[in-house]
Amino acid sequence: MTQSPMTSPAPTRVRVAAAVLLALVSATQLCHVADAVIPSTPSWHPAWNQRRHKGSLSTKVLPDTPLPQCAFHLYRHLSKTGGTTLRFIFDKQTAMGEWEYPLIYGFKEDEWVALLDRWKVAARAWKSGGRPGPRTLVEVRGNWPSNWPAENFARVLHDVAYIRQHFEPLGCAVSTSILLRKPFPQYLSFFNYYIRQKQTAPPTSPGAEGGRRGWPDVMGKAAWGRDAGEWAANVRDMQVREVLGDKCTSTMRQPGYDVEWRGQGSEPVRIGSHRFTPEACGDVTEADYARFQHTIQEFDVVGTTEQFDSFLLLLAHRTGLQYLQYVRSNEGSHDRNRDALPEAVTAAIDFSTHYDRRAYDLVEARHAELVKNIGGAGFTSKVKAFQDATKVRGGKKFVGGLPAHSPFKWVDREAASAAGIKPAVPGCFTEPTGGGQAVAYINFNPVTLVDKDSALACVKGCNLDA
Predict the structure, then answer these.
(1) Any signal peptide, and if so, which residues (predicted)?
(2) Under DSSP, is residue 268 helix (H, G, I), strand (E, B) or coil?
(3) In whole angstroms, what is the distance from residue 88 CA to residue 99 CA?
(4) What DSSP letter does each residue of 137-157 carry, written as one string?
(5) Pairwise CA distance, residues 46 & 322, whole Å
(6) Rounded to 5 degrees, what are φ and ψ at 89?
(7) Contacts for 6-13: CB closer than 8 Å, 24+ residues apart
(8) Cα(46)–Cα(36) distance, rounded to whole angstroms?
């Protein structure tokens, strides 16, 4: 496979990456390498001995793959499939100093290319003995602040394939993963999280001129549908669309109907379904589904939300992630029982998820094959032991047991700079960004990874420990 022209290291990018590399090598904070299942204490962080422990997780369900010395993992996060929970698990790896997680999930093309350039320089330097190996986690989500990785996912996978081809022979572990969810609960979860509030909001008033309002800046049932069924009728096969990336995934969060106002003070009246561009936003076809099947075969680890723990332990086996205990995120409070919904709603969702149901069956079968190949019943017993180790503390349920104490935390970047506190930069980082996507999740202010004992207040990843 030839290198994509867009990812060929330009001289300027190479000089920048080399400068970052020299800064990392000169630092005393060198990322440790696992000596077995439990990684050894890093020499660059002497205080870690007093804080580090295994958590309550039984040794028989600890990850069976040591922490790799050089690694790159890409996770494709589809909407409402458990991706936020996995994101926090990835954050935990960064808070433990073992992986960097440098890109916001809706990264831009230049950010992606810059990361690839830095990672290649770091991996080659590791192979020649010049620095610790890079270990990098990347999540492709899209939507914010850019849709680029979602809409160009084929390109992203091509770039990862290039890394695999050229760096696995050097000893770097390169892998990919994806989760799908049963379509019916996935649709209801998406509806309850993103759409319900738009339907129930007061209808948008007409502009000063009256008439049609600029789509999609309208609220109310006329534009968004009267219930989950009317919304779903215009949003078909969401999971297949997201994987393909080029099937107008933005329509998932846009009103499906055009409206007009027929007088001052009137409420909007629906005038028909919104006319999306047929070339980009047409229905999923058999040819599209064939592309989806091909894409799924490129993933190393696949799983379903319904078997999240099995997926997680498969992922740890493939990648060497060491800290798996987690608290479920965004569980929601609305009923997703189809028997409690009107028949018209269930019929509309079923009609709109024809290919998604086939996709789920495909991924479920592939997941079962992976489980069989790794040990079948023995692996299933390991998953059960992981679940049985679940503990409750502080009102939170930690699946898999109580987590190890994190030696690092994220603080506001401006506050850290004002206080003269330098960021923690484990040697597995490719740049001193602070890792963990480097922004807070609520206000998206820039953050910096620092020692856990810093006097500054934690602003992100504050719930990763028990």
Answers:
(1) 1-36
(2) coil
(3) 13
(4) EEEE--SSS--HHHHTHHHHH
(5) 20
(6) -65, -40
(7) 6/109, 6/113, 6/155, 7/113, 7/116, 7/117, 7/159, 7/162, 9/117, 9/120, 9/121, 13/113, 13/114, 13/117
(8) 20
Dihedral sign (CA 207, 210, 216, 221): positive
Indicate the Cα dihedral angle 9, 11, 17, 18, nearest 10°.
Answer: 130
**Residue 188 per-residue DSSP state:** H
- Whose tokens are 């401006």? That residue is 414
* Tens digit of pLDDT at every position of the chain (466 positions): 444 434 444 444 444 444 444 444 443 344 543 322 223 333 233 233 333 445 666 555 667 899 999 999 999 999 999 999 999 999 999 999 999 999 988 999 999 999 999 999 999 999 999 999 999 999 999 778 899 999 999 999 999 999 999 999 999 999 999 999 999 999 999 999 999 999 999 988 766 445 555 567 789 999 999 999 999 998 999 999 999 988 877 778 889 898 888 877 778 899 988 877 766 677 899 999 999 999 999 999 999 999 999 999 999 999 999 999 999 987 766 666 888 899 999 999 999 999 999 999 999 999 999 999 999 999 999 999 999 999 999 999 999 999 999 999 999 999 999 999 999 999 999 988 766 677 877 778 889 999 999 999 999 989 999 9
3-state secondary structure 358-402: HHHHHHHHHHHHHHHHHCCHHHHHHHHHHHHCCEEECCEEEECCC
Domains of the chain, by residue range, sit at 5-183+297-451, 187-282
